[in-house]
Automatic annotation (TrEMBL):
Keyword Transmembrane helix assigned: yes
Coiled-coil region(s): none
Keyword set includes Transmembrane helix: yes
Keywords tagged on the record: Membrane, Transmembrane, Transmembrane helix
TM stretches of this protein: 66-85, 92-109, 115-134, 146-166, 186-208, 220-240, 252-274, 286-305, 317-340, 352-370, 390-413
Protein name in the entry: DUF4153 domain-containing protein
Amino acid sequence: MREEILLNIDNPRQLEKLYRNNKATFKTAFDTLYPQLRENPLVEGWYQRLNYSPEGLFWGTAKERIIVVAASLLAALVAKLPALLSLDPESFYVRNIGFIVFPLLIAYFSWKNKIAWKTGALLAGFILLAIIFINALPQSKPGDTLNLACIHLPLWLWSLLGFSFGGGKLKTGVNWLGFLRYNGELAIMTALLLITGGLTTALTINLFRLIGWNIETVYFNYVVICGLAAVPIVGTFLTQTQPTLVNKVAPVIANLFSPMALVMLVVYLVATVFSGKDPYHDREFLLLFNVLLIGVMALIFFSVAETTPTSKSPTQILILFLLSAVTVLVNGIALSAVLFRIAEGGFTPNRAAVLGANVLMLAHLLYVGVRLLGALTRKTDLVLVGQSMAVFLPIYSVWSAVVTFLFPFLFGFK
């Protein structure tokens, strides 16, 4: 590495390639060469870059910290509304779980990105109408359209969050790929916060138990519920103010779990053949099949979102391509099972919703798979893979809105 650095010391592009190919070895070799080359301004710049360490953690501005604390307290208050207003907890949380956090995160990014007040008012109006709509739906039996609306409403709110994350400007395009990357980093940060909170909870409850105080009920009813409501907000704050905490971990997790998911999925499909179960006649199995499909798709999207043109080796791209190909097979099986059940028993709200979702996911996976194949054969740039992944997200938003707001009317609130 020393000789390569010396040969390319005046070639910034080649130095950058050497650095990205093996950062640790490059830094070690460069530091040993620095004393004899320090008169070169380019060398000095590289030395400062490689050896820079921030003086301390940056925790955002005072105003931002106040906003995060206020939003966390407000989320906790919303989460405790059933107890404060004597509401039915099950009915409240099923219908309003998405409103505990999403409106506050939308407001946070709207403020942070300085979204125009007209756009902010429009987002607030959409959220208010959604609150009124979901709580006005009648509780019927079996209530399929209500259940579907409650499931798809958070997905629609999630798309509004992506819109505010991207700056609230459709003309210049929303940074959907950046939004997916934020979601992956938020998931990691949320997991860390939950682990920390779980350990703190166990320690606190057992310490009080030692002195004869049983605080489990009070602690869970107030501290745990309020803490869970605040976790996504605090996690978002940390991802925005401390990006280095997770932006190096996320690619490692993506690269580690992608091959594991590929092996697991292949083994699962083989085991399914010999298990005697099939999604054509087993409704619960079909549901689990679709949950598996969504989980693997999320992993593919997370892996691609953490990709840069120089960060993925051909082997990693091949694994993602094979994973997408196997997921297309799983999706095809699920889609054929849905069509079989529709042909056998006709349309129902659940079957229509699953059919639409499976068609969208199949088209999306095929599109991403074609782009991955192009990147694998070097016929297209890896950047196009990320673009192909992000282009479908507005379509998912429209579909979730259709299921949430139109299905109850189309199927007579059944």
